[in-house]
């Protein structure tokens, strides 16, 4: 290549680089994706970028392409779509779209990096910010079970101006066409690396840039936040003009699992403005039944009287996002400072979904006639979001009739054909015992919790009936059942594999109830009541009804009842106890049996009645009743001086939502029971009452007493139940439990004693105080108080004391001994003997006659008095006098020692760990040291109550004489 040609090429290359470098001033952007194939993992991926053209369109125009990374694959060069319009506020919107096929399911990061942000961004760094690149990423989860999943799309561009001192709001108007739920959270803006990764920039929230100003209402400090549910990003209020960049994540959720997220990095441009922002009237959240026509007036005002531009955006306007009838928005004629419009949307069955639709409305003011310096006018905006939830209509005309199945105890539930025949939707059948007057509020979709309904079946949305056999066990005669229906819908756009899982599609309102009971061609048991409590002569009376649906004639019969009994609340060892043959004559005593000779002290009993009719002169079993148990009363755990009563009855009728009766024996009149309470019962089969001696039922006289742990009290309860069936009489069913006699617990704890220990006064001890002593004793004494710290009287009935000991002050005490009578009361002193040192900690507890132990007393600890003194002269000359250097007298409580000797030049000549030292004047090699002055250092660890106590460091000099 000739020199001139090379020079021209080099200049052209520099110009090209400069042109690509000028592709700058990125304000905002995000990456979205949607699957476009049902046979392959093929997605359409789009980066939407917003570019600053404050100084002309060259930068935006120069960004002819961008480079994507998909996971570790890249860079992938993608050209810009045409056109790339100017959308106001000196901003263009550029889109870069390509199609990519993934080789396998997985979790993928998709990212884009662009050179050069705006310069002079105030809240990111390091400066200059034009040397920072722009980076965003999205996370795409590919799973075959998700079907043709699409990320949300952000329908509102981030281009609105913020004014100093005025609240700024932005909402991305995110819409998920698949009906997935969305949430929002802030993140730190990032810049990208060369391999498609991101790293956080230096960042502060815009409201933290100094100086911080007030909010729009004058309060302080300014705030900046994003609503995690609605996505409203609010800065209240900017104080410094300039550029600010913020970022947030839009998270996509399905069935409680996050399946993707996209990041929007956006720029907020704050300007000085004498203009006041306009206001949109608040918008209510709407909840409508599919098929309803929504007509909502939208109104905006401007306090300065400026002309207003009212616009709207949302998925409900786009056929690619929302099927069937689309919403419309019609503006009314404008007037000074006011703009109104009518939002209309004819909803339909295809619009049913769990998540609300969000429709964004934006009002922007414009300079009006007479506006001073209109060229300097800054347009400001306000944003409101209308949230619309579309639910399914409730099923209609629910009915039941006995089903012709083998058991004769089944219902056919039927209903009108459902009006929203959405493929994959299911009708869910619910049942409960008893009827309710519940009416669902609008938007209270599905079966509300707490009503007592349980799902018994589900069928396709095209079905109009279901046979309920109670899982083949048969329904119970005499019980009134309530049925309701709910329709569950698949998520919009669900794949065929998802249709049966009903992911995210929402539910209908619950239907009106239909109540019914099976024809009473069978008797039902109404009473199993304990008449007498005895280990051998207990008595239980069992009652039942006649088969109400049978009208015998003289030629019919005979009929027969066979009563069976099993032991226990859930007993299954049924044995025949009586046979009663009858002609079903009204008034005949054939529906009662008194069962005698039972052990009602130890056992509950369970009864079942079999019913026979005559066919061809032979008795044939028609059916058997649901078993019913007697009421079993037990003593439960309780607090001090109280008795807890628990009772259970497993019966075919309901004992809930009634007031059971509790009786206590009058101790002055043995055998006479006084009602002391009525217990409102709301729960299932086990009921409870806590007796503190108070008589809470005054109608039969008040017999309040003080319960004592030294006495026994007898109780019985009477349950009240019902079949909730007008054809079964009596309407209320009363049944007694057996009698139990119990003693209340006494859990009152004694007061903690006040403990003291004999102490050592180390300053008054002689150096040889413990020389001839190998064992030591700690003497404890304590007092039992008359009252505790709260001023309550202490239990005087203390029968023993427990003494706890710990060697160190940081370890938990272990039981050392117990002080027991005699004498009575027990002694309040103790000598802990045989110790190797005084070091240790103690506390004492008191124990009353019921075995209840008090809280610990105060903790007392005792430590040793260290005894360690060294001489400064010794004469290792072999004359048997003062030949060995050792501590004066005896070193007491020394646990370990490190003793070192140094000559006058600082050289170590001797070292030992012998507690008695016993240095004979030789060096460590066994050679005699010369007479003279030496220096020593002793590090002494004493036995102490403190674990790893600080050792004593002793330094001094020694005169070695020969």
Automatic annotation (TrEMBL):
Annotated SUPFAM superfamilies: Fibronectin type III
UniProt KW keywords: Signal
One protein family per Pfam: CHU_C
Keyword set includes Signal: yes
Keyword Signal assigned: yes
Signal peptide (residue range): 1-22
InterPro entries from the UniProt entry: FN3_sf, Ig-like_fold, T9SS_type_B
Cross-referenced NCBIfam families: Bac_Flav_CTERM
Stated name of the protein: Gliding motility-associated-like protein
Organism: Rhabdobacter roseus
